[in-house]
Amino acid sequence: MVGERELAYFPGERNLETMSKLIESGVEEGKRPTALAGVLGLSDAKMGGTKQAELVLALARRYQHPLAERLAQVHLRARSALSCDNNFLCQAAWMMAGGVSPGVEVVAAVSDAEVTALLDSAKERWKVPQPIPGWCCDGTHSAGSDTRFMGVWSQMYAVCRAFEHYGRVDPSDDWRPEFRCFDGLTIEERPVDTPASTSTERREWIIQRCIQQWVGSELQYEDWPGYAERLMTREEMITALRECEQRWQEHEFRGHNVVNQPRLNPKPLPDSSSPQLR
């Protein structure tokens, strides 16, 4: 999103020369949005995906950036599949301009047995094919129109907000308007050498139960006794949410952040299923 915005405000012509200089300027000045804008603009300059990857690879070698070089090579090794995809190239430009990914060197171990089991499971399921869920079909990577999980920044921001609100990511949850960010003007960033945010350690979560009542367009929830009197950290809330879902499977629960969304119904409605009445 920041790269697209930078490109939208670029005053010059979008050709190979100007976009190449934009990438170089972003790399040399450590301006990541500028470097991203240059890569995004290569498509406007009518440059094919393979040529884009070759250009980024050449820049990575010039600036002696092994990680960016590796990303460009990943694209080139799968050039047919990635002919219309610049994700790896944008990552490479981001890193050359000073961007850091904490998981870039992490390689998850996968055993042969796990792969075999996964393939066997897929073959078994394929004997009775099922329709692909609508939330998997975003209209870009497939047919469909549900863009929530397509991977673009603006949509992933909404996914994070949904997780903050519900304590989970579930396609069946209501995607509230306030989850979305339309301005694109403020993006918070943590300095590379700074410890991770302590927001997960703040006590601002409780558990609520859906009472299956609507007020206007808002589905109502109540505080769940035993899980709302003391504020929890996000990790504690997730554990508590799972516990509630296992113990009271007839109810629908959510994790509620009392800082982002003040309590609307602070006092629970007593009923026979309440844990305090058992």
What is shown here, in short?
The protein has 9 helices and 3 strands, in the order ααααααααββαβ.
Structure characterization notes:
The chain is mainly α and 278 residues long. The protein folds into three domains: 2-96, no CATH class; 125-179, no CATH class; 199-277, no CATH class. 41% of the residues lie in helices and 8% in strands. The protein is built from nine helices and three strands, in the order ααααααααββαβ. It has helices at 2-8, 16-29, 32-44, 49-62, 66-77, 87-96, 112-126, 153-166, 234-247; strands spanning 205-215, 218-223, 253-257. Strand 1 (205-215) and strand 2 form a beta hairpin. The radius of gyration is 24 Å and the shape is globular. Residues 185-190, 192-199 and 265-273 have low confidence and may be disordered.
Topology summary:
Blueprint lengths: L1 H7 L7 H14 L2 H13 L4 H14 L3 H12 L9 H10 L15 H15 L26 H14 L38 E11 L2 E6 L10 H14 L5 E5 L21
Antiparallel strand pairs: 1-2, 1-3
Helix pairs in contact: 1-3, 2-3, 3-6, 4-5, 4-6, 5-6
